[in-house]
Amino acid sequence: MNLKALAQHLGISASTVSRVLAGRGDEFRIAKATQKRILDEAAAMSARPDELARSLRLQSSRTLGLLIPDISNPFFASLARAVERRARAQGYTVLLADSQESVEVEAECVRMLVDRRIDGLILAPVGGESAHLEVLTTSKLPLTQVDRVFASLQAASVVSDNFSGARDAVRYLVKLGHRRIACLQGKEDSSVIAERVRGYRAGLTEAGIRFRSDLLAGGEHSQAIARDHTQRLLCAQPRPTAILALSNLLALGALEAVREAQLTIPADLSLIAFDEQPWASLLSPSLTTIAQPVEDMGTAAVDSLLAQIKPAARKSKTAPIVLPVRLIQRGSVAAWKKD
């Protein structure tokens, strides 16, 4: 049975039936009893609205875009799952694109998503440059940045408290007697990495430890590069007593280098990683991590975007959402005995 036939059967206007089946009954203040009657009858008679016709009529595709920099990164895979789950609960589907940590691919993905007439976009930008993203601002497309952000886009954002997470990790290491604390960073022009490095340096300053540029290594979101840079750190004399890896991929690279150097964690080197993963507790020793609230980030990003999509909210400004992180103490960190 089609929508028109269902409306005639119920003796209710087609527009009312259409709005209820589109999940917009409350928005148009349709009585709960009427909504229930329509939905129950539709389910009983297997009536479904024509999605294309509905999207043209309502000027809404009920589709959200999600553009992330690396789907193979466990953090972004978990984020995508959280976004899809929340969007589906709100009656939306998600169109996912992977920019592969490339500005060029990111620009292509933005064009593709906009051409698909998405209702709004959740974006975790690659970083570096944002000129190719300005079209999102000029097009008035509802936009929420998540994890990584460009302040120049002046868009809503959902991030973790990256500064406090890194600072607290350094505090923990200092409390256990560590003074030579190295840091493995990703892309320096990423807002996330910049905030974590700032927290790392603040933790050192707070403890009266001079920042040393030779102990700040890395520069790419790459396990292989993190391994290479960790190898160089381990060859230094004296070598670091602890490493703070600013992502899970960087931590894996550090673990590779430590194994190849035939060193032992935490006897020879303590290690803390940003991002909690299911495998972190299964390592031997288990990995101390700074856990980000990935599920909450995905949920908040969808809610932020949907708040912008509502006609009444189009002109309102959304304050940045900063979610707390948590240090999970495990076996990869130990007190350092004085040299």
TrEMBL record:
Keyword Repressor: yes
Annotated HTH lacI-type domain residues: 1-58
Source superkingdom: Bacteria
A GO molecular-function annotation: DNA-binding transcription factor activity
Gene3D superfamilies per UniProt: 3.40.50.2300, lambda repressor-like DNA-binding domains
PROSITE patterns for the chain: HTH_LACI_2
Alphabetically ordered keywords of this record: DNA-binding, Repressor, Transcription, Transcription regulation
Keyword Nuclease found: no
Pfam families, alphabetized: Peripla_BP_3
PANTHER family: HTH-TYPE TRANSCRIPTIONAL REPRESSOR PURR-RELATED, LACI-RELATED TRANSCRIPTIONAL REPRESSOR
Protein name: LacI family transcriptional regulator
